User: What shape does this take?
Amino acid sequence: MVEIQALIEAQDIKLDELMAALAGTEDHHEIIRIQREIEEVKVMTEVEMFRCQIRHAEKIGNTEIAEFLQETVDGI
Assistant: This one.
């Protein structure tokens, strides 16, 4: 859980930076680029949270859950 909390905190910091950049621009292309980066940060954080869960499931020997979560990650 500590690892997931650290991922969320890092995501929040990056999203705050991107939102500030978004608020500071009127360039249409830059707005789209920032919005795409925001989406990428959110998706990658979710993937990393799944990977944490996979490692935990493997650690406790729950291979069925680990495999299911890996399939989820592979589908992202």
